[in-house]
Design goal:
Elements lengths: L1 H6 L7 H28 L3 E2 L11 E2 L3 H18 L6 H23 L4 H19 L6 H20 L6 H19 L3 H21 L8 H18 L8 H7 L1 H16 L12 H7 L4 H22 L8
Antiparallel strand pairs: 1-2
Helix pairs in contact: 2-3, 2-8, 3-4, 3-8, 3-9, 4-5, 4-9, 5-6, 5-9, 6-9, 6-11, 7-8, 7-13, 8-9, 9-10, 10-13
């Protein structure tokens, strides 16, 4: 019995964290429902379909704002009452940087901002994340690469938020998988942050699963991209549970976004403008439903989780 307790990874996870995650899911769902009610009643935050849209009827957006808000509040709360779970550096990274990204996304959802304005804030948040998560003696080239990754994560997650349930379900799967791997490797801060994000995304997904009743908006997608980018650079640089684990878990999103961006640049198109050329959008145009495409992404990401766990050295099926 004593040996079993020593080997039980759950012994490191306090019950308070489980409770906070459950409450975060509930509050995120309630907040999302309120945003839908408010948007419809006040005729605000309404996404009107255009030739670049993947939907055909006006739909409330900014459903990701309460998701981001309650995820941030939960992480800050746990950091204050259980600092061994979430150190101050992580509290500041997600609380300040994540709050900044969610806020600028909220403003963009409310009244579309110029791409250049959003980009400036993305860079500021990325620099802040690197400052908090990387030691001062880290070579500049590594800091630059980390900052670039965080800024790109914000944007590619936003680019991939275009189908019912896609960004929300991917957030749940990626965060649960990343948290499990981090927990098995004894990385409590990434574990806690990841599972809080999964809990918040699950609350939003109740309203966004196909057919969606509300969209995530830039407040939510930007925050998720920032959080995953920070988890990637803040979990170590090696193959075993570090940056490459997230590179694999996020592969579907960053590959589609990067491939499409490069393709548009080569064609000399205005790549900063909205479009319908992502691979998932082309699949929808071919006649596949949002439900089918989302389930395909979820299924592939489950396989990617298995690959990431094995790459991290914990994928021994005999355990």
């Amino acid at each position: 019995m004593q040996l079993m307790q020593q080997n039980n990874i759950l012994m490191e996870i306090p019950f308070l964290m489980v409770v906070v995650c459950m409450i975060t899911t509930i509050l995120s769902s309630i907040g999302c429902g309120y945003m839908r009610y408010y948007s419809i009643k006040k005729a605000k935050f309404i996404d009107v379909p255009n030739k670049r849209s993947s939907h055909e009827v006006p739909m409330p957006r900014a459903g990701g704002a309460p998701m981001a808000l309650f995820a941030i509040l939960a992480i800050v709360f746990l950091g204050l009452v259980r600092p061994h779970l979430i150190p101050l550096s992580w509290v500041l990274t997600i609380g300040v940087g994540g709050g900044l990204i969610a806020w600028i996304g909220w403003l963009d959802d409310k009244s579309s901002l110029a791409a250049s304005t959003r980009f400036v804030f993305h860079i500021i948040a990325a620099i802040w994340a690197v400052y908090q998560l990387y030691p001062a003696e880290t070579p500049f080239i590594f800091k630059f690469a980390a900052g670039f990754w965080v800024a790109w994560s914000i944007n590619f997650y936003n680019f991939m938020d275009g189908l019912d349930g896609l960004a929300g379900s991917e957030a749940v799967i990626i965060a649960l998988g990343a948290g499990y791997i981090a927990g098995r490797l004894g990385l409590l801060a990434p574990l806690t942050v990841a599972w809080v994000i999964a809990a918040a995304a699950l609350g939003f997904l109740f309203w966004n699963w196909p057919p969606a009743k509300i969209f995530m908006g830039d407040a939510g997608s930007g925050f998720l991209g920032y959080a995953f980018g920070c988890l990637a650079i803040g979990s170590g640089t090696g193959w075993h549970g570090g940056f490459y684990t997230f590179l694999l878990l996020l592969a579907l999103f960053w590959f589609d976004a990067t491939f499409t961006l490069l393709k548009r640049i080569i064609r000399r198109e205005k790549f900063w403008e909205p479009h319908r050329q992502h691979l998932y959008q082309l699949a929808a145009q071919k006649g596949y439903s949002h439900h089918e495409i989302t389930l395909f992404f979820v299924t592939v990401n489950m396989l990617l989780f298995i690959a990431a766990a094995m790459m991290a050295g914990i994928g021994n099926l005999s355990i």
